[in-house]
Amino acid sequence: MAAWNSAWARQLLPPVEEAVEHTKLWWAVALVMAVGGGRRGRAAAAAGVTAMAVAEVLSNGVAKQLVERRRPPREWIPHDDVEDRPDSSSFPSGHTAAAMGFTSAVAPTWPWAGAACCVPAVMVAVERVHSGAHYPSDVAVGAAVGMVAAALVRAVPRLFVRYVRLRLRLRLRLPPPSRG
Fold it and tell me: 61 is in which domain, residue-wise?
């Protein structure tokens, strides 16, 4: 993938990299969804932004601190897009984690918007390998981190509500709800 030296890739992928720097693309998509998508759009945007933040904390704040991995050698990249690479650990890809976290959290709430977000999310993953910033395994683990973040964002509120109800029931000494 990094050796892919097509004119198409060299024109399309650098703007993708620019759009996802500092999660600009995902914030813009969230704004469009929140403004134009009604209640569903606002819920999807909130879930996406929250999952993106969790994914970035897990990938950049936790995993990169635990795993020191050098970026792919410059000699492996035959094109000039290799010059602007971060100095941080290569593992995992934080850009991919944020993209997949956002997309995976949006999809259950608003499926067609989630499907539309898949295209730039995949392009982010391809760009990170093509630019020489990451190994394919960095991108794969980044995608997994993003999906875990989205699952956490969906599960934690439900678990919290169940916990609060249980505590309230115990405090008031109410019987468990009937199943029937």
Answer: 7-172
